[in-house]
Amino acid sequence: MVHTPAGTVGRMVELLIVGGGKMGEALLGGLLAVQPEGIAVVELVAERRAELEGTYGVSTFEAPVRAEAAIVAVKPQYVASVCRELAEVGVSRVLSIAAGVTLATLEDALGPGIAAIRAMPNTPALVGKGASALAGGTAATPDDVEWAVGILGSVGAVVTVDEAALDAVTGLSGSGPAYIFLVAEAMVEAGVLNGLPRDLATVLAFNTIAGAGEMLLFEGADAATLRANVTSPGGTTAAGLAALEGHGVRSAFLEAVSRAAERSRDLGGR
Q1: Is 1 within the bounds of a domain?
Q2: Are residues 58 and 126 in the same domain?
Q3: In degrees rounded to 5, what are phi and psi of residue 65?
Q4: For the range 232-238, what are the long-range contacts, defined as Cβ-Cβ under 8 Å and sequence gap of 24 or more?
Q5: Which of the listed residues 110, 141, 165 is the one where a domain comes to its end?
Q6: Which pLDDT value is given to residue 36?
Q7: Do 42 and 140 share a structural domain?
Q8: Which of 24, 43, 171, 214 could cross-link with 257 by S-S, CB 3.0 to 4.6 Å?
Q9: What does pTM read for this prediction?
Q10: Could you give the CA distance from residue 123 to residue 174 in angstroms, rounded to a whole number?
């Protein structure tokens, strides 16, 4: 069954978000803050449609309807079929946030004349602190790219890159939040091991990571300089950093990003 308020049927939607999962919802929430009208969601699961309708007051559908533009926020294996459906309902531009799905795949499914933009956001978009990169396809004009920048800019920072860089972006910022969450887990455990109550260790670890992130963004210095500023010769921080370097933490991060980028290329069949 299609869920839609009266007056929506037959009227072209300005923007369809295809996929009502966490990233689709993050973009929906960010966009509604700056564009409260003209957005609808396509979602197969009835319970999820009802949840999105109740929370955001948007129209929801089981399948794509007539729309000017669309965001594709489904799993990579479903992107091509979704794009073919979108072409049939008359979209003029499509932004895909599916990992590994190339612009060539998008353009092949959409057909000629429809602008395709491929992007890689990350989960901090859920709290308006995302880091996204995007690349436009052969039919994408500067206006199309600017449109996509505006969408992703509603939930965080955005950069434009050549498509060849998007696999590295996936390995770095796309997968990066999980790396930081692992660091947070380890820091909490280390605090507990050294005698702190878990709740206290959690508060201290999480706020340390958040504060360090704010300093990276707003202090105007690079990471190496900030690290040096807090590291006194022969002090406690120097001892801790020596332990991290001794266990190969730096090389482990290099390998993690490289492995994730390689997996992104695999998902795209390259």
Answers
A1: no
A2: yes
A3: -120, 175
A4: none
A5: 165
A6: 80
A7: yes
A8: 171
A9: 0.86
A10: 8
